[in-house]
Amino acid sequence: MLRSVEGAEDEVDQAARLVQQHDIGADDVVIAVAASGTTPFTVTCLNEAKRRRALTIGVANNRDTPILKEADHAIWLDTGAEPIAGSTRMKAGTAQRITLNVFSSVVMILLGRVYDGLMVDLQAVNQKLVRRSESILTRLTGRSGDQAREALHRANGNVKVAVLLLHGCDVKEATEVLSRAGGQLRAALADIGKPAPEPADLSDLTT
Q: CA torsion sign, 171 to 177 to 181 to 184?
């Protein structure tokens, strides 16, 4: 993190070893990212992961390059020439970070960790996040802060379980309902015959 390792991008043997070391296989997704689309280390990681039957996604800023051709799914970011030649941290790097942010956000939504724009699977590891959990719960249920805190305490901090507790479930039932729903709060609410909450106002949940 303190010194650049410029030569690492050519270490193809190390790339293959890393994929093997982490036991990448058919249950995994590998995202290969390189502005040029030709970086030997990254291409090797992608090809080795593909050989081991992982799903592969290639992200590059040059079209018709090895990363895009070899990946199962290719994402070409047409950012054009950099303002400073060779400084791919500017346009290319920024576009890549946005792409990965969008990708990770959509994955979290599909996994049921986001509900109506609220992070219902957040881990309340500090006081700020404890307060955010309470605020999310009051918005989703219309209950008071005291009721939200009590439900979160009974749910061991799990916002989704706490929502179901405030809709009349006990902890065991709430856990089972969520399990049947694959962790999806909307499906869990439907399972117990409760309507989904109205979309939340997120204006004061940004800090």
A: negative
Report the alpha-carbon distance of residue 156 to residue 32 in Å, rounded: 38
Nearest to 134 by CA among 121, 146, 117: 146
Q: Evaluate whether 33 touches 100 at the Cβ level (below 8 Å).
A: yes
pLDDT digits (tens, 9 = 90+) for 38-69: 999 999 999 999 999 999 999 999 999 999 99
For the chain, percent of residues with pLDDT exceeding 70: 90
Region of residue 153 (phi > 0: left; psi between -120 and 50: alpha; otherwise: beta):
alpha
Q: Which amino acid is at 47?
A: N
- What are the CA-CA distances from residue 119 to residues 39, 57, 146, 173 (Å)? 36, 26, 20, 22
Beta-bridged to residue 56, according to DSSP, are 30
Token pair listed for 59:
């992200």
Contact 142, 165 (CB under 8 A): no
Q: Is 174 left (phi over 0), alpha (psi -120 to 50) or beta?
A: alpha
Q: What's the rounded Cα separation, in Å, for the pair 191 and 80?
A: 50
Q: What Cα–Cα distance (Å) separates residue 175 from each residue in 19, 52, 149, 184?
A: 36, 36, 18, 12
Alpha carbon 93 to its chain's center: 19
